Every structure is written in C-alpha cells, then in structure tokens.
Amino acid sequence: MGRHIAIVDDDPINLKIAGKMLAKHDMKVSCIPSGKALLSFIKNNRPDLILLDILMPEMDGFETYEQLRKYEAETEIAEIPVVFLTADSDKQTEAKGFEIGVDDFVRKPFDPDVLLKRVQKVLNRQEQINKYHMEATTDKLTGLLNKGAAVEKLKQVVDLKSGFLMMIDLDSFKLVNDLYGHDMGDKVLITFAELLKEGLGKNDVIGRMGGDEFSAFSTFLNSEDDIRRFSENLNTDLLAKAKELMGEDMEIPLGASIGTIYIPGVGEDYDEMIKLADKALYNVKQNGKHGFEIYVAGAGSESQKSKKIDLKALSILMSERNIPNSALKLTKEDFTIVYRYVMRYIMRNSKVACKLLFTLDRGTDATDESYAEACELFGDHMSNILRKTDLILRYNNSQYFVLLTEVKEDSIQHVTDHIIDKWTANNNNALTISYEMELIKNEE
Fold first, then answer.
1. CA 91 to CA 93: how far, in whole Å?
2. What are the DSSP calls for 247-268, one per residue?
3. Backbone φ/ψ region at 298: left (φ over 0), alpha (ψ -120 to 50), beta
4. d(Cα 243, Cα 249) in Å, to the nearest integer?
5. Where are the alpha helices (DSSP H) in 267-400?
6. Which domain holds residue 33?
7. Are residues 87 and 153 in the same domain?
8. Centroid of chain to Cα 266
9. Residue pLDDT, tens place only, 68-92
10. CA triplet 33, 39, 41: central angle to 5 degrees?
C-alpha cells in the first residue's frame, strides 16, 4: 500500500467518491466524518496528507486546521500537509486558506484527474521538503541530529520542558582509530548512536556534536536511578558490541562518560545549562570515566560527591581477560592501558608489584573546603615520596589508586607507613586515611 491519505468530510457520498478515486492509485485512505474526529485520529495515526472539507457543522475546516497545527506544535511533531476541499468559488476563501498555510485547494464535485494530480503534487513537494530538511539537520554517519540542528532543538526543549540535559563522550575512542582504522571507528560510532536511541525515549532529543561527542535531552529518564541504569547499560552494551566488531581479544577500554543536569522546565538558558552538564562530564573524565555525574549546585563543590569503590571492584574494572603479545603505544591519559602494560611486564619477568587504594575521609579538624583541598594535596604528597616508576591515579575526589612497580615484598608496609606518617606530621587531622593492599607476583 502506498501513501496514506485522510479525507475529512461530513458528507458520506463525498468520502466514498474521493476514497475510491485515490484507492485506485494504490493509496491507503482513511475516511473521517468531522474535524473533531480528525483531531482524535491523528493522536495515533500519521497520514501523509489530509484532504479537509471547509464547510462542516460544529467545527469547520478553518477551525479544524487551527486546532491541528496547535496540537502538532504542542506535541512537537511535523506538520501534515493539508488540502482544502470546497464547493465555494469565492476567491477570498481561497486567499484566506493560503494565508493560514494550506497547501492547495480541490473543488467539488471532484474531477478524478484534478484530484489525483493535486494530491500527487503536494505529496511530491512534501517529499522534497522532507529530504532537504533531513540533509540539513541529520548527521550523515549516525543518523542522529547534527550539531546545528541538535543545538537548535535543545534550546527549544530546555526552555519549555523538564528533563535531563546530557553531554556524552566516548572513552578511549581514539585508540579504535589508531589501532583498527577509521572504518572501524565509524562502525563503533554508528553502533553507539543505536545504543543511545535504544536507551532513551522515542521523543528524546539526541545529537552528535562532532567526533565522539554527543548530547541529549531526555524526559524518558526522570530520576538518578534511571540515569545510573542508562549509564551502566550503555557501557556494558558498548563493550559487548565492540568485541563483536573487533574480536573478543579487543583490549581497548571503550566506554561512555555522561555529565548531566536536571532541567526544571521554567525557561532555563541552554548555554548556561550545557556548561554545567559539561562540568559534570569533566569530573567523570577525571575520576575514572565509564560513568555519570549529575550536576548539583551547592553540594560542597561544583560537582556531586563521587561514589567510593573498593579495591576488588577497581581491579575488576581495570582487568582484561586476555593479555596480548603485541606492544602498545600509550598516551598520558590512558592510565588503564599503562596499568595493563605494567601487569604484563610483571607476569613475564617474574617481578613483584603492589596495588594500593587510599581512601581519604574528612578529619576531625577539617571543613568541607579544607577537606577538598587536602584531598588534592595528598596526590602531590605521594608524587613527591614515590619513585618515578610508580603510578598514581586519582580515581575520584577522595580515592587514589597506586601501583608500586618492582617493589620488595617486605618493604611495602614501610612505604605505606611512610606516606601516612609524613602526611600526618605535616597536616594535623585534615584527613583520616585508610588503605587496601594487594600483592601482585608471578607464581610460576
């Protein structure tokens, strides 16, 4: 069946005649007896064209047209082309119709050839308009909104609706292009776009801002738990899909980081809100990636406090099933890759290393401000004490992961005691420091 045409007329004979004419040309026809019935019909149906009689009781064609456009604007759906049906030859009526935006007129009684040609003309014109609009607003690779269209749409919804405004980045995507080529990178981006559409609502706004950066506005997600589930599913599914594309031995720590802010829907400024979502994204990137953060003003800092993690969970997050034989080119940002490289070295060369996870709680003498500052300084403190071959990662605001490389087993306790004792001697009770320890050695 071809295009779907809705015919609205209170005269059943006109409905029957027009319906038969169009059905002969492989068109699906819905016959609707009134303007009120049309407004109910379009809530669950999307015809390609509406043939709308002007002279009808209760609600005439002009009023029906006005209510139709109002509904489309409120629900943010595309306008359906409308052709007026009329037996009136008054030019003022025709002028009024074109002035409000109707696409054409068809005179009654119907001439089959004229009716068909005018319907086809409007349908073809609308198809071209849709094509041009699609080309102008769609990202060619992913099928999502492109940056310009996404920003325009996000500005509209942020001003009117309540929901979560999100900035979403792929983690470690550059390594896909570097190691597997740009064609594979494109496949990953297409897959990621599909996962975003699957995880968000059908009416949510999703755009590609460029490269591996995306944005979205969701009314489908409406709580922190919803955001958490969305983030977890996105990261799990992305890794699984990436291994389908690149093989089970794919070791790139692909994932997604999400910074978001809840918009109350009271005329918020998009430019300001997206900056705050971006700040939340930055914090996720700086504190382990592969997660989310909701921007909360006045929560002791510009970002929400990070959830603490135990050493076992952190080890699982950074582990890999298969240790490859090939060497890797590493960047400073890719701590996880460095970690794996060192683990490989230890196993192959029968070295001993140690994983430490320091957790920093607020001391008895600390305020919120001094506690945050002390957490920052603790990283510098360890950098000055530990060797250049040791690795430090600030996993979140209050936890540091340390990898002591080529360490003697009987000296580990001395190292940890030295770190804590020297800090305590110089900083009073700003922090309460605890740690977990795990020895790494090749048992062969």
1. 5
2. -TT-----EEEEEEEEE-SSS-
3. left
4. 7
5. 270-286, 311-318, 335-349, 368-385
6. 4-136
7. no
8. 22
9. 999 988 887 889 999 999 887 677 8
10. 70
